[in-house]
Amino acid sequence: MRLSAIGRTAATTTLLLAVAACGGREESGAAPAATAEGRCQGQQTTGITDTGIKLGGIYPLSGPASAYGDIPKGIKAYFDYVNAEKNGIGGRKVEFLVRDDGYQPPKAVEEARRLVEQERVFALFQTLGTPSTTATWDYANQRKVPQVFVATGASKWGTDTAHPWTIGWQPNYVSEARVYAQYLRQERPDATVAVLYQNDDFGKDLLGGFKKAVEGSGIRIVAEQSYEVSDPSVDPQMRNLAESGADVLLNVTTPKFGSQALAADAKNTGWNPLHIVNNVAASVTVLRPVGFENVQGVVSATYYKDPNDPQWADDPEMKLYYAKMKQYAPGADPGVPYHAFGWAAASSFHRTMEAAACPTREGLRDAMRDLKEVEVGMLLPGVTMSTGPDDGFPIESMRLMRFKGERWELFGDVIDTRKEFGPLTE
Predict the structure, then answer these.
(1) Nearest-angstrom CA–CA distance, 244 and 7
(2) Has residue 152 been placed in a domain?
(3) In terms of domains, do 186 and 124 share one?
(4) Beta-strand (E) ranges in 258-354?
(5) E strands within 65-211?
């Protein structure tokens, strides 16, 4: 029997306390002490003891996607806060080790091996990027190490059945594409669309989802240009797209190239499309170098609270976030949305680990696939985490937003893509 993510009972608490003392044994045979049901016997306790949990994260702290290096700062601030003021997670202090892969898949594999085999982490909490996660998930699943809440929205994390130890967190790219397609169907039903996309699984996933979502409508894709992460610039691609004269530009990029595309669009006075930028490149840190005056009216979608939005000024979670970021990450700007993303992801891990029936790798694996409308303070109201046997996507709801002045403004209602478009399958 597994516990739901929010139905924790006194009996479960007793169980967790009973098995806590047996944490920390190696995965080579030692098992937690038997409980009334013996459910935890024989499960892996590498990286977890009665007083600590060791996690490892892999991010591009350098290279073309280094803007994402802000994410682990928000994660570490959250864990430092929980360790100092909440006695950790279930009495266990979290040690979070961060490794740099430079957005290079071979390096990601190397770092994953080091974290698992040398550092002996309990779980890989976040590997960022579709290419890096694709390169590492076979290894993580062969070693039966939870690869929890990977920082990529590729749809395969939720539809694949051969990698039960790996799961995403953020809305998948196909669902995000559906949100943009629905918006255009309502606002510009006869739009012509030009697409800039990263030439890998990330870019192709979102583009493919968009193409499928506009089938049967009056919306037409009239130009496509791809780029490689090794390219110095996307200016040539943007010039080619401008020649199409499309009504809409769909910008499917990571931060560096997202900023370049926005800047190129601003410079092209002869082309004025509605610019839609995907969520992963929608941070104000991407827009600021372009000049806020040049990105007015740009559209995107989101699922977590923007620390720059004044509507959250009195929000308890946002107030806590600002206070603890200043306290535990004094050199980091709380206004950077990637920090808030990290805080939200860490909080989500906290809730999931608390729900585990066993403080083991297997317990975490089962808990992350049995979430029931879990509320996380940094997520938008109406956005919760849910998973199940046939649903490996924790978050599938988003809201549209438009850039105005110096910040994003939400508009429209929360769109639950499960309900609007049906489940996403292979």
Answers:
(1) 54
(2) yes
(3) no
(4) 274-277, 299-302
(5) 93-100, 123-127, 147-150, 166-168, 192-198
Element (H, E) at 107: helix 105-113
pLDDT band for position 182 (cuts 50, 70, 90): very high
pLDDT reported for residue 269: 80
> Three-class SS of residue 366?
helix
Q: Judge contact between 75 and 63, C-beta under 8 A.
A: no
> 366 and 353, same structural domain?
yes
Is 317 in the same domain as 343? Answer: yes
Cβ partners under 8 Å of residue 334, min gap 6: 307, 321, 322, 325, 326, 340
The region, left, alpha or beta by phi > 0 then psi within -120 to 50, assigned to residue 103 is: left
Q: What pTM, to 2 d.p., does this model score?
A: 0.88
Mean pLDDT on 183-193:
97
> 90 with 359: CB under 8 angstroms?
yes
116 has pLDDT over 50? yes
In a domain, 2, yes or no: no
> Is position 327 within any domain?
yes
- 246 and 232 within one domain: yes
398-402 mean pLDDT: 98
Q: How many other CB atoms are found less than 10 A from the CB of residue 397?
A: 23
Do residues 154 and 202 touch, judged by C-beta distance below 8 A? yes
Quick one: pLDDT at residue 10? 36
Neighbour-count burial for 328-351, b at 16+ CB within 10 Å, e otherwise:
bbeebebebbbbbbbbbbbbbbbb
Token digits for 61?
């702290």
Q: How many domains does the chain have?
A: 2
Q: Alpha carbon of 412 to those of 162, 182, 302, 304: distances in Å?
A: 37, 12, 12, 15
